[in-house]
């Protein structure tokens, strides 16, 4: 009975549906072929017993249908390749927009990307060019250019200067900041005329100099002197190597020693950081040095080997050693510190020493310290400068002919590769001077400054006169202690600030 009722119900439903279809203009059924394409699942490319053996087809497996990681692995048969494709398959290729700049290579990641930057570029998109940060135009900084953790430019200043509101310029904190000439001296030098070398006719062993007068401009690296009463003499007499090189002396033609190597007389106050180490009994300048602060002087270590700390004193503001010009200031030494690695009997390496004065120096137009900079800054300044300035009195140690007045000479930096062809030097030294032109430091005034000017008007210590093979000998250069190598040691000993990093 129940079966008859069920059949009756089914038949009734069928009749009802048939009536609806007959009264409707739209059919509810599709063709057999269409229905089959919808209901049938596409068979995999590899099927049957060989599915786990044969290499799958990427287009059939994962592009025509959605696949999982395991199915994709069957296509590549390599886990790393599968992962690379999976990252782009899941969320798209993040590198399609080419986000990496300056030749960077884009590596797609899951909802992210990584730029592999070429040398000299950093940042998420390689958008920061390191060489343009500080190496080009000093990063826009007046003095020191440094990079913070985000590789952004941070300007800084030497001891005695404050960073201005523009975060680029440096303003002097005191009346006599390091590295700058006194205002009165600078104004006086700016109005003078300069007699300069115009042509040099060089022959073997003979040099003749013609000079003309021209107006001095601030572009000159030194506001130099008048040579109208000086003539240049023939070849200087050869003097064998001496460990107390001094600056070239400018003598009148009557000088029988004729030890002239191209120097000029400095004006009083033109090199106010110049220091003289004076032997007490003989009252002779036997070495030079540079003033770093009101109590610290830097010089060459070999000057202290035989000099004896109690046998000499420090004189500042000196110009003419034969005349008391009432601008000098003498100071006793409280402490001396030779570099711990200096060995006088083994090599010329680490030829550097510090002297602490018993009484602080009173600064004036004639006594001003020279600036120190961070290691990288000092090294870059040394190498990039066209010329630098060395100075001294041209004496031999404890006697001999000398220049009464402070002398100066401009010398260019010489690449170490070129210099090693004529002298054996280490990375703690550098060469400066000319291969043939007779301009060089000479005997007797080691320890003096090798100073380089940072535009517009601030001088930094870049070297210390150390040693040389004779004086201005053809094919030989003057050798200087490389100050950049010792910035950390100097600052640790003296407490002088040279920016946020040494």
UniProtKB/TrEMBL annotation:
Domain Gla: from-to ranges: 45-91
Domain Peptidase S1: 260-495
SMART domains: EGF (SM00181), EGF_CA (SM00179), GLA (SM00069), Tryp_SPc (SM00020)
Top-level lineage group: Eukaryota
Disulfide topology: 117-126
A molecular function GO annotation: calcium ion binding
Keyword Cytoplasm found: no
Name of the featured protein: Coagulation factor IX
């Amino acid at each position: 009975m129940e079966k008859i009722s069920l059949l009756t119900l089914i038949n009734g439903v069928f009749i009802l549906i048939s009536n609806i279809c007959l009264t409707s203009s739209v059919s509810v059924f599709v063709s057999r072929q269409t229905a089959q394409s919808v209901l049938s699942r596409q068979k995999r490319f590899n099927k049957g017993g060989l599915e786990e053996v044969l290499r799958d087809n990427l287009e059939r497996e994962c592009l025509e249908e959605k696949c999982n990681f395991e199915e994709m692995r069957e296509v590549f048969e390599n886990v790393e390749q599968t992962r690379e494709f999976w990252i782009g398959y899941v969320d798209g290729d993040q590198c399609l927009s080419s986000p990496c700049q300056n030749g960077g290579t884009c590596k797609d990641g899951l909802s992210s990307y990584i730029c592999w930057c070429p040398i000299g570029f950093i940042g998420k998109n390689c958008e920061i060019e390191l060489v343009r940060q500080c190496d080009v135009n000093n990063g826009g900084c007046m003095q020191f250019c440094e990079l913070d953790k985000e590789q952004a430019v941070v300007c800084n200043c030497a001891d005695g200067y404050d960073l201005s509101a523009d975060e680029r310029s440096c303003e002097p904190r005191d009346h006599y900041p390091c590295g700058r000439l006194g205002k009165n001296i600078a104004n006086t030098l700016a109005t003078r005329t300069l007699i300069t070398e115009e042509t040099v006719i060089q022959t073997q062993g003979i040099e003749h100099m013609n000079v003309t007068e021209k107006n001095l401009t601030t572009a000159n690296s030194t506001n130099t002197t008048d040579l109208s009463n000086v003539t240049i003499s023939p070849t200087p007499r050869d003097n064998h190597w001496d460990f107390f090189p001094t600056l070239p002396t400018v003598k009148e033609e009557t000088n029988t020693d004729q030890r002239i190597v191209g120097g000029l007389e400095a004006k009083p106050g033109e090199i106010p950081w110049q220091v003289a180490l004076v032997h007490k009994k003989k009252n002779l300048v036997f070495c030079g040095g540079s003033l770093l602060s009101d109590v610290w002087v830097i010089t060459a270590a070999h000057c202290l080997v035989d000099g004896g700390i109690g046998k000499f004193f420090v004189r500042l503001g000196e110009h003419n050693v034969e005349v008391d010009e009432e601008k000098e200031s003498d100071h006793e030494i409280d402490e001396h510190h030779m570099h711990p690695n200096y060995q006088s009997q083994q090599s010329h390496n680490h030829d550097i020493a510090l002297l602490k004065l018993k009484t602080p120096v009173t600064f004036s137009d004639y006594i001003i310290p020279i600036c120190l900079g961070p290691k990288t800054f000092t090294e870059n300044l040394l190498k990039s400068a066209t010329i630098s300035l060395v100075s001294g009195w041209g004496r031999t140690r404890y006697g001999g002919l000398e220049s009464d007045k402070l002398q100066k000479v401009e010398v260019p930096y010489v690449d170490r590769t070129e210099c090693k062809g004529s002298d054996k030097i280490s990375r703690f030294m550098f060469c400066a001077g000319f291969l043939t032109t007779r301009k060089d430091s000479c005997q007797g005034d080691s320890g003096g400054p090798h100073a380089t000017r940072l535009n517009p008007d601030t001088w930094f210590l870049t070297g210390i006169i150390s040693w040389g093979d004779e004086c201005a000998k053809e094919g030989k250069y003057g050798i200087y202690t490389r100050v950049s190598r010792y910035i950390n040691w100097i600052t640790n000993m003296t407490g002088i600030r040279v920016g946020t990093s040494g």
